[in-house]
Design brief:
Elements: H1 9-12, E1 30-33, E2 39-40, H2 41-56, E3 62-65, H3 70-82, E4 86-88, H4 95-103, E5 107-109, H5 122-128, E6 138-142, E7 152-156, H6 157-171, E8 178-180, H7 187-200, E9 204-208, H8 212-222, E10 225-229, H9 231-240, E11 250-256, H10 262-272, E12 277-282, E13 286-291, E14 301-302, E15 307-310, E16 315-319, E17 329-337, E18 343-348, E19 352-355, E20 358-361, H11 362-370, E21 375-384, E22 388-396, H12 398-407, H13 409-420, E23 432-434, H14 449-454, E24 462-463
Parallel strand pairs: 1-9, 3-4, 3-5, 4-6, 8-9, 8-10, 10-11, 11-12, 22-23
Antiparallel strand pairs: 1-2, 6-7, 12-13, 13-14, 15-16, 16-17, 17-18, 19-20, 21-22, 23-24
Protein name: AMP-binding protein
Keywords: Ligase
Pfam families: AMP-binding
């Protein structure tokens, strides 16, 4: 497999390059929606110029961005790049993660109040806002930690720009505002919630919709629009509201961070006419593929420009313009390639473990649990308690909750183990169980291994 060099498609696109966003003369364009007056492009240019001028006078080169407000974050990102400096985004905005990132950087930007205005004149703005070099403008992000400790990944503005152009070629053309139920400080939220809307001329909502009712209110006030969301939220949405109320208001849902439950996808398809657009990818790879689940088809279509292959070990291998490497990139995802160019994913190869010398795919065990009529979602991990055992966190549906109340934890666990015995040896079956109302997804919509393990540190655990 030979990787082709990145195309210059982004430079031929009608979209505004990231390096030129603040040189755009369309000052009356609405950039962002708030709970008050909208934010216009003229304010973005002014704020970016002031912060960039201040940063240019500072000795430090690497700046940590930790603003919870998406507008402040966007201004800070563009200002750092216009100042010719580098950005680090912490693994999360929790104090410990911000502190660790800042200890390895030269400064912290956690809001627009952390700097002083240094220029107001149009001449200064024009000088400060000259287009930056997108290949040399760098951004360090961290992986989600779903398979271990977060890992630092470096991206250039040019890589992000190439991905935005591909997204626009697939789903662009509409100028509706973008609403979000996910934060902006990971690669999915950054691209879909901030950079893609900004470059394509669509307003983004600065408020994060933490509940379906809040999303509906924002759509009523400013819609119709597109919604950037996650599987953990979309899987629950059909149980929380009547999806019919979103008809004509939410024109498209995006989902990334993990697979969307086929049942939930079917609800959206049946009621709204189309399933959410799911994006398969990672911080390391950027976007890889997409799908809209229909009629049980769970295959993925590579994004334009992404080439795929399969390694001897069965892993998905890809060449992508969104990766800063000319060599093929081997993922940890077990894949089957289809004749029509699409592929299927069968869980992560690094989630294959050995219990008592027997191999177990944790992904397969989770999938088999979800097939049980009482189970909505499931997550499995391995614990070491003198020996390695499988522990499972299960979110039950309404029927499952009723069974839990009637049978109790021990009997319910036995029922689920009996179900799993159809496919797994007894030694591989879960020995510890937890039954929370929802799985402990983090703000990225991911299940971090540490968060799952923490659920078994208390005594409220049923053993087999």
């Amino acid at each position: 497999m030979v990787c082709a060099p990145p195309s210059d498609r982004c430079r031929r696109s009608s979209m505004t390059p990231l390096s030129h966003l603040c040189t755009d003369d369309l000052s009356d364009r609405v950039v962002a929606l708030t709970d008050g007056p909208p934010i216009m492009l003229r304010r973005v240019r002014r704020d970016v110029a002031r912060l960039a001028a201040w940063l240019a006078m500072q000795p430090g080169h690497n700046w940590v961005l930790a603003s919870e407000h998406p507008y402040d974050f966007l201004v800070s990102l563009l200002a750092v790049w216009h100042a010719g400096k580098q950005v680090t985004v912490p693994a999360s905005l929790q104090p410990g993660a911000v502190r660790e990132a800042t200890a390895q950087a030269d400064g912290l930007l956690d809001g627009l109040g952390t700097w002083q205005s240094s220029t107001d004149t149009a001449t200064d703005m024009d000088a400060v806002l000259r287009p930056f070099n997108a290949e040399r403008s760098l951004l360090d992000l961290f992986t989600s930690g779903s398979s271990g400790a977060p890992k630092r990944i470096r991206k250039s503005a040019a890589q992000l720009e190439r991905e935005i152009v591909v997204l626009e070629s697939c789903w662009g053309g509409r100028r509706e505002p973008v609403f979000a139920t996910v934060p902006h400080h990971h690669i999915y939220g950054l691209l879909f919630r901030l950079l893609w809307p900004l470059a394509s001329g669509r307003p983004f909502d600065t408020l994060m919709c933490t509940a379906p009712e809040f999303l509906l209110a924002r759509l009523d006030a400013h819609g119709p629009g597109q919604v950037v969301s996650s599987p953990s939220q979309l899987n629950r949405m059909p149980d929380l509201i009547d999806l019919q109320v979103l008809q004509g208001k939410a024109t498209r849902f995006y989902s990334s961070g993990g697979p969307l439950n086929p049942t939930a996808a079917g609800c959206f398809q049946r009621i709204l006419g189309t399933a959410p657009v799911e994006i398969f990818g990672s911080t390391e790879t950027g976007g890889v593929a997409w799908r809209e689940q229909r009629d049980g088809d769970d295959s993925w279509t590579p994004l334009p420009g992404v080439q795929i292959a399969r390694s001897a070990a069965g892993a998905l291998v890809l060449c992508s313009p969104f990766i800063d490497d000319d060599a093929p990139y081997e993922t940890n995802d077990a894949a089957t390639l289809l004749d029509d160019g699409r592929f299927r994913i069968h869980g992560r190869l690094d989630r294959i473990v050995k219990i008592e010398e027997k191999r177990l795919s944790l992904s397969e065990l989770e999938a088999r649990l979800v097939e049980h009529p009482w189970v909505r979602e499931a997550a499995a991990i391995v614990l070491s308690e003198g020996r390695q055992i499988v522990a499972t966190v299960v979110a039950l549906n309404d029927d499952g909750q009723l069974a839990l109340e009637q049978l109790g934890r021990a009997a319910l666990g036995k029922r689920l183990r009996t179900h799993l015995r159809q496919w797994f040896d007894a030694v591989l079956l879960p020995r510890r169980w937890r039954y929370p109302d929802v799985l402990p997804y983090n703000e990225r919509g991911k299940l971090a291994a540490d968060d799952l393990a923490a659920m078994f540190e208390t005594t409220e655990t049923q053993r087999e």
